[in-house]
Prior knowledge:
Layout: H1 2-16, H2 20-33, H3 39-52, H4 59-72, H5 75-88, H6 93-104, H7 110-130, H8 133-149, H9 156-171, H10 179-191, H11 198-214, H12 218-241, H13 250-262, H14 269-285, H15 287-292, H16 297-305, H17 309-321, H18 327-344, H19 347-502, H20 505-539, E1 548-551, H21 552-563, E2 572-575, E3 584-587, H22 589-606, E4 611-619, E5 624-631, H23 661-671, E6 675-678, E7 687-694
Parallel strand pairs: 2-4
Antiparallel strand pairs: 1-3, 4-5, 5-7, 6-7
Helix pairs in contact: 1-2, 2-3, 3-4, 4-5, 5-6, 5-7, 6-7, 7-9, 8-9, 8-19, 9-10, 9-11, 10-11, 11-12, 12-13, 13-14, 13-16, 14-16, 16-17, 17-18, 18-19, 19-20, 20-23, 21-22, 22-23
Amino acid sequence: MNRRITSILTAAVIGLAPAVAQAEEIDVYINQLADDSTPDDSIATMYQIFDLTPRTDGTKVAWEILDVADRSGNDSVSLDMLRQIANVNVRNDSIITKLQDMCANYPVSGDQRATTTFLALRKAGIIARYTDEKLRLDKVKELIEEYSDMPADSDIYKQLERLGSLCIILGNSYYSALLPQYIEKSLELAQKLPESDFGLRNLIYNQAMTIYTNLNMPEKAIEADHKLLESMNALEQHYHDKGREHRNFDPYRYTTYRNMLQNYRALSPEEIEVCHDSVLALAARSEEVKASMTNNVTNAYYLMATKQYAAAIPLLKQIIEKPTTDNFNLIRAIRHIIEASEKTGDKATQLAYTTLLNQKLTEYLELAAHDTYSEFKIIYDLYELEHENAELELKTINDKVKFQRTLLISGCVVFVLLIAALVSLIINMRKSRRLSAGLVEANEELRLERVNLLKTQHKLIEARNEARSAEKYKSEFIDNMSDQIGNPLNAIVEYSNLLVDCASDDKRKYLQRYADIVKLNTELLSTIVNDLLDARSLGKDSMTVNAAPAVASDMCLLAMESVRSRLSPGVTMTFEQEGAPDVYVTTDAHRVEQVLINLLTNAAKFTTEGSISVSYTIDRPNNSITFAVTDTGIGIPEGKEEEIFNRFHKLDRSSQGNGLGLTICRMIANLLGGTVKVDTGRKGKGARFLFTIPMS
């Protein structure tokens, strides 16, 4: 067995490429492993190899230790390895789930329950960071309900599992009114854990440290940092007492000291220097810590703490410009660079990052309001559920009392009812004799009415068939007319242009004017025919939607080019998102363009001077895009904002068109799952139409 383990560990360590000194020590222990005679000796040697292996590369060694411990029945070591593997794979949901399944198969003990809780908290971290909002809210609701229903004397591990998971998931949101209360309670429970539960206690302290920092509670964060350092020192001493002299927590200490420097406002000048000196000492003896310091966080906040603002600004800029998903650290760095630039008189930097801070705070407040609403909705739902349960219990008791009372009264009532029923039966028998005589006459009257109804039904069927025939003839007539009109209209335009081209230069300009009039009127006639066809197709629900990804700006620009020739002299038409990044919308681009062309044509018709603009806005929470067509034309009279969408309705009877354009816009919008309406909140000359559709 030792030979197999030796070969596996040798292959694993060769792939890890640790420092030369570490590699030499690892080789010594690998050679020693071959001479170990008992599983306990092998595990002790493999622990030394695990402690010398770089923290992020120790998974292979941990799996081998787990295998040996399982086969030798050493549950304590097996559970320790489950926790160590989870620490390295904090983002891998499948591995955490596998570890939970494995942990459930070990005999129940304090160590097993602590490991179960530890893995549940790691699972909560994955839910908090890498799952969708609905799953997180469902999990929060489940945890609050379970924790609220849990008796005060419940098992401490069950309490920590629910409460710690709740803190982790809420700690990744933007605001939680109850989060400080939850984390305080989890810290109280951590203090009550058995002394041997170092891993679980450290995980709670680490989470508290992060949450207090994000909630801008530096005193509380520093307090959690001190507890974590004390616990790590005790754990390291515990390992050294057991012969694991290579086990050290320098990377974890570095993270703690870095967090303390981020909360420097709660530290004295002496404490700030102690933290910084400790970080430098850790970096001097640990390559992993030295590599971590390249992110500039530690140095930047040390410079801020010691008021070296000019030197801190470049480091803070690097932190801000580095891509990150941690908005808490990003906003913290922006606040500090604004403070540093203000102290140094760097107005340009101060202004630039103040603008960025306003943008980030706006996003933060929107998300915070949403998360707060979601949390209070969950709490309200739970309160309603408890209230309903209490009402049901009270109702059950009242129902039992009523039932017993009713049962007593019912005996008396039934006897009275039997007598009444007997009397009623005698009376009804007499009435039935009289009614039977009238039924014959009533049946004859019903027969005659049935005959009349059948005649009426036949007439209605004939009328329905005639209406269907008329509808069919009307549709065929419109289709034939559109086919028959289209070719002559095109011929008129072409021959008009041909006459102009064939005319002499002195007459061409004169004839061109009349050719343009002919072209304009043929386009109007073609528009009328197309509107009639579209209205008929939309009214019969025969028009289909061919959805595909399309660029919003391309649809707007194409619609504008289609209408530009209809603008009155002096009227300008602009696109407000010119040059903006592409925004993709999954929809029927042809139908969207048709709506935009109709709206722009309508704007061009009623705008004789001024401007027409096209723009769009994105509503990410509602997954929608709104196109806006704005003009400075004659506007829409108050109270007529909905009438203009009626079929064949025209505010100005003398204007061109058939009154179907806006009707078709609304019908197409409904077909796409959206809306078209007049912006009644706009002030000033002209009108604005808003066309909203789903993004996908």
